Amino acid sequence: METTISTKQKVKQSAQKLFRERGYAAIGMRELAKAVGIQAPSLYNHYKSKDDLLREICFDMAHRFFNAFGGAVIKEKLFSNKLKEAIKAHIDVIASNPEAAEVFFNEWMFLEQPYLLEFKKMRLEYEMKFRNIIEKGITNGEFKNVNSKLAAFVIFSTLNATYELYSTKEKILQEQMDEDIAQLLLKGIKS
Amino acid sequence: METTISTKQKVKQSAQKLFRERGYAAIGMRELAKAVGIQAPSLYNHYKSKDDLLREICFDMAHRFFNAFGGAVIKEKLFSNKLKEAIKAHIDVIASNPEAAEVFFNEWMFLEQPYLLEFKKMRLEYEMKFRNIIEKGITNGEFKNVNSKLAAFVIFSTLNATYELYSTKEKILQEQMDEDIAQLLLKGIKS
DNA sequence: CCTACCGATCGGTAGG
DNA sequence: CCTACCGATCGGTAGG
Fold first, then answer.
1. Which residues, in sequence order, are CB contacts of A178 under 8 Å at separation 6+?
2. Element (H or E) spanning A142, and its range?
3. What share of chain A is helix, strand, coil (3-state, %, to 5)?
């Protein structure tokens, strides 16, 4: 039993690493099996298919994002603070799972139906939570009268690329980074 | 002669479309050939290999970005204006070639050596041009004393995702968009 | 530009 | 968890 669970986890971790490095389509089940240390057919004792593996990685991450958002937003009253905390929470989820995050962002299109549709629905729902905060913040004057869709786009584009920052030589401190990115997005770079 | 050239262009355009939609690794030469309207082996009259095709798409785009940057920056004196114009020029290159741009951003890792190394070198060089403007703008007081690497990261993350905006139902006007994104990055959303 | 074809590899199954 | 194996498809070449 313990062995089974642990091998399954190893399969998932190896898949995250390989899918991230070279892409879902470019990784074969034989290569994945080799990384785990078993034969290819044995992988099917843990996952029904290659797609099944991808699905677990992607939906796991989706749930992490939703949970982190819920916890972050509830603590604040001002919309600008809600947005700031939601930004930090989002970055933290990525920082804690950089490999899975990269798969989530770059390989989701290989999901098969009906999961592809469900995935897109969840992403839109999550995006709308952010837009909602922005719009309420505009209404009560905390934010400028910006295009909320475009503002959400700028925020997500930035946040969803943060996994890149963990592989760089010029190391950036995590705590500082959260705050700096939030400040850049909220206040820009101009004096 | 005309036929030869036109078929080659058609191969490139079809490749851009298919690589963008489903990824370089997931597209076979037979599927590409079918989209062009020829047999798979005939593709090799135009490109030496699948990788050769990807290389042309990626390096074409690289040159477009460099050229656009040079033209934009030279027109301005203030660093904040240089940055703003460079941002707009970058967005315009993507807007004019959304399919090739998406391949450029998402499929470059399938380039083979030595081209992969050359590609990375060019990207870093381009990124440094932006950082340079930011740092000079900080020195002369046009910008806040931000982390220039992080500021460049926020800018590029946003710009390099703009191809997403052209497939959305909620249509955003191109001219307005350039300016709005530049403003959001320069001044943020906070009142 | 085509037909015919190569060896290699693909995701997955049968059966134990 | 394994060995043995399936039909399908891969990028690419030979030769015309």
1. A87, A88, A91, A92
2. none
3. 75, 0, 20
Q: Which of residues 17-36 of B touch strand D (CB under 7 A)?
A: 27-31
Query: pTM higher than 0.90, yes or no?
Result: yes
Query: Which chain C positions have some atom within 7 A of a protein CB?
Result: 1-4, 9-15
Selected residue with higher pLDDT from A167 and A19: A19
Which residues of B, range 142-161, sit inside 8 Å of A by Cβ?
142-144, 146-147, 149-151, 153-154, 156-158, 160-161
* Whether A106 and B106 lie within 8 Å, measured CB to CB: yes
- Kindly calculate the radius of gyration of chain A based on its CA atoms and give it in whole angstroms: 19
Both tokens assigned to B83? 């940055």
Contact call for residues B27 and B51 (beta carbons, < 8 A) = no
Neighbouring CB atoms inside 10 A of A59's CB total 17
Bridge partner list, A190? B143
Location of structure tokens 């699948």: B50
Residue-averaged pLDDT of chain B: 94
A190/B191 touch (CB, cutoff 8 Å), yes or no: no
Cα–chain-centroid distance for residue A94?
A: 5
**Tens of pLDDT, residues A121-163:** 999 999 999 999 999 999 999 999 999 999 999 999 999 999 9
Compute φ and ψ for A33, nearest 5 degrees.
-60, -40
The answer to whether B38 and B76 are in contact (CB under 8 A) is no
From chain B residues 97-126, the ones with a CB under 8 A of any chain A CB are 106, 109-110
* Peptide bond before residue B98 is cis, with ω within 30 degrees of 0: no
Which of B146, B154, B168, B181 is the best residue to mutate to test the A interface, defined by the most A CB atoms within 10 Å of its own CB? B154
Hey, what are B50's tokens?
A: 């699948």
Q: Which residues of A touch B191 (CB under 8 A)?
A: 141-144
Kindly tell me if the per-residue pLDDT of B169 is higher than 60.
no
